[in-house]
């Protein structure tokens, strides 16, 4: 167990709370695993269909039951920069599998949308639900029951959580996640933000904005800011789904290719056919989930994971709550400053020591469970390394350095950037919400100001452009929750609110929508639950109501007489314009079935 008493107590509480559902889940995993190599249950006709397109050598291998078959679930498309490199991965994985005496087949593809493309567009209303669609799609691929292990190719926002839900649903199969890596560094993040705010003020045109954005997002690989995509990669490594050191190696490099080949071979080495059987559902347990949360806090990671981690944990019978997340935040120090929590990007983070250094520091501080299983074996200490390339093209791993190569980007457990984590849960008479404070200056973490109420982000933008918001205020943007419109990200609000804050006004945001991992310098209470469509208190706020957001104490309240406030009738909104177009009509049932944000906002688990 970790040395830190709070981490110990939260873990024990999580284990106890989860005991009935976790035991039932593990029994299902055990039953599925007891059947041995999955192809033994297939008829000759089933099996013939399963390898009809293979070469003769692979057919001969798959005809028996002692050769491992690795099922590849890929989120490849060449519109997403982060996923474009996956085009060549299946060929590399198949070659590596043959070298290891096994076979690899693409079992199926899953959809992968880019939130960067859909920001402020109708397609963003599908974004959150794409996570559950991805889990369902991966299940279709794996349902052919041809595989002894699975390799998951995914990076970005909803893709990795959806794939994890699938991996844990097929928990009897070992699961290795294989990343593509971040793009090389482009335009500095501070300059990108400066141009965005100038555009919001009308001081530069679309041509200048597009040039800046193109210099920021300029090539293959993950976007380099520390949003949900790169938080995903951190989580997969610290939870043990990645090979040690795999997360932040640029695509198209010899080390990236070596790690991909090694991952394929490792996946085949941990099947039930060998002596290191590591079923994903047994490997990932309450300690793994706690380790992921500790990493999320220590890096100031994405607020989306206050929902995704709950849904992922639920898939393994683990009943994680926002209270667990919030209590951990109080004791986990912030060790990384990566945009939007600072000017650096993930390439700078990796160069400063990256995952290996951070894990070594968190282990030193007694904040992580070292006694976990991973795809690499027993113990998280094996991840406190720096990956290198051997002269023969294989991967070498050296112990993580004792000192950060850039203390302004990555600090030590003894000298953290702040004593608590980057994420907090706010509670009060408006319900519960989440705030990311790692990028918010301490003097801006308490805002008390009148409400300005909007039912869409477009309405707020129009008010800003009309010059109606030059004052202290708390923007309330409601009817953006999962049941209302699918809980889109509201990043189009960041530039105008940032401009107003820079003009000296006290501003904050309260919404039942999302702001994702790129939540920036403006205090934003997001994921408000209950949401407005369900009659949550946010639907009772009127223009001019005094709201107090205190991220230091973890409170969010409307300062209105309780009897008067409770007597108000919740507002309603006409959402018909959000129910059609760009496929939104196909997701009506998803909106109707969606759970609360603090329960994972899932249509699969309620």
> Which spans of ≥5 residues are poorly predicted at pLDDT below 50?
none
**Tally of DSSP β-strands:** 16
Please tell me the overall pLDDT: 93
- What is the percentage of strand-forming residues? 5-15%
Tell me the radius of gyration.
Answer: 24 Å
Helix content: 25-40%
Could you say which structural class the secondary elements and strand pairing correspond to?
A: alpha/beta
Largest sheet: 8 strands, mixed
Question: Count of DSSP helices?
Answer: 21
Alpha-carbon distance between the two ends = 31 Å
User: Could you say which overall geometry the principal axes of the C-alpha atoms support?
Assistant: globular
Order of strands across the widest beta sheet? Answer: 9-10-14-13-12-11-15-16
Walk me through the structure.
- The chain is 36% helix and 13% strand.
- By secondary structure, the chain is an alpha/beta fold.
- Among the domains are: 5-183 and 220-285 and 299-321, no CATH class; 423-578, Glucose Oxidase, domain 1, CATH 3.50.30.
- The strands form 4 sheets. Strands 9-10-14-13-12-11-15-16 form an 8-stranded mixed sheet.
- Strand 1 (69-74), helix 4 (89-99) and strand 2 (103-109) form a beta-alpha-beta unit.
- Helix 4 packs across helix 11 (254-269), helix 8 (189-200) packs antiparallel against helix 9 and helix 8 (189-200) packs across helix 19 (494-502).
- The relative contact order is 0.11.
């Amino acid at each position: 167990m970790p040395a830190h008493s709070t981490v110990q107590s939260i873990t024990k509480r999580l284990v106890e709370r989860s005991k009935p559902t976790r035991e039932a889940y593990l029994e299902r995993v055990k039953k599925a695993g007891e059947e041995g190599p999955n192809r033994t249950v297939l008829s000759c006709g089933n099996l013939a269909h399963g390898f009809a397109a293979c070469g003769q050598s692979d057919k001969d291998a798959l005809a028996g039951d002692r050769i491992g078959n690795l099922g590849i679930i890929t989120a490849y498309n060449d519109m997403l920069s982060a996923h474009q490199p996956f085009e060549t991965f299946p060929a590399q994985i198949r070659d590596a599998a043959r070298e290891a005496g096994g076979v690899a087949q693409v079992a199926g593809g899953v959809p992968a949308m880019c939130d960067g493309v859909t920001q402020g567009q109708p397609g963003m209303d599908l974004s959150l639900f794409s996570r559950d669609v991805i889990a369902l799609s991966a299940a279709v691929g794996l349902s052919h029951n041809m595989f002894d292990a699975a390799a998951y190719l995914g990076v970005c926002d909803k893709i990795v959580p959806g794939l994890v839900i699938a991996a844990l649903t097929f928990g009897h199969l070992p699961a290795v996640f294989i990343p593509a890596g971040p793009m090389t560094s482009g335009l500095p993040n501070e300059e990108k933000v400066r141009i965005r705010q100038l555009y919001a003020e009308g001081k530069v045109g679309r041509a200048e904005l597009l040039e800046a954005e193109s210099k920021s997002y300029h090539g293959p690989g993950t976007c380099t800011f520390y949003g949900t995509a790169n938080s995903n990669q951190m989580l997969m490594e610290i939870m043990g789904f990645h090979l040690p050191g795999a997360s932040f190696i640029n695509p198209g490099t010899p080390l990236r290719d070596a790690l991909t080949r090694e991952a394929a071979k490792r996946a085949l080495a941990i099947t039930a056919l060998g002596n290191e059987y590591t079923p994903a559902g047994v490997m990932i347990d309450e300690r793994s989930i706690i380790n992921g949360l500790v990493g999320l806090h220590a890096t100031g990671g994405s607020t989306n994971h206050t929902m995704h981690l709950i849904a992922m944990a639920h898939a393994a019978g683990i009943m994680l709550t926002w209270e667990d997340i919030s209590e951990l935040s109080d004791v986990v120090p912030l060790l990384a400053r990566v945009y939007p929590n600072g000017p650096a990007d993930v390439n700078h983070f990796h160069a400063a020591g990256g995952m290996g250094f951070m894990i070594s520091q968190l282990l030193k501080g007694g904040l992580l469970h070292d006694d976990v299983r991973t795809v690499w074996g027993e113990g998280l200490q094996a991840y406190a390394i720096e990956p290198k390339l051997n002269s023969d093209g294989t991967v070498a791993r050296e112990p993580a350095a004792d000192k950060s190569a850039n203390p302004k980007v990555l600090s030590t457990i003894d000298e953290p950037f702040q004593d608590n984590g980057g994420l907090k849960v706010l509670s009060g008479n408006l319900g519960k919400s989440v705030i990311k404070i790692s990028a918010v200056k301490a003097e801006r973490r308490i805002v008390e100001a009148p409400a300005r109420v909007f039912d869409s982000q477009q309405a707020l933008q129009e008010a800003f452009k009309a010059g109606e918001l030059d004052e202290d205020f708390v923007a309330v943007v409601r009817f953006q929750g999962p049941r209302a419109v699918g809980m889109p990200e509201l990043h189009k609000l960041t530039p105008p609110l940032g401009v107003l804050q820079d003009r000296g006004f006290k501003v904050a945001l309260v919404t039942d929508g999302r702001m994702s991992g790129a939540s920036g310098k403006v205090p934003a209470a997001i994921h408000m639950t209950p949401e407005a469509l369900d009659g949550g208190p946010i639907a009772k706020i009127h223009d001019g109501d005094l709201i107090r957001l205190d991220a230091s104490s973890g409170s969010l309240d409307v300062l209105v007489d309780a009897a008067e406030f409770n007597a108000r009738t919740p507002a309603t909104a006409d959402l018909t314009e959000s129910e059609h177009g760009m496929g939104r009509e196909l997701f009506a049932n998803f909106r109707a079935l969606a759970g609360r944000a603090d329960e994972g906002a899932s249509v699969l688990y309620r």
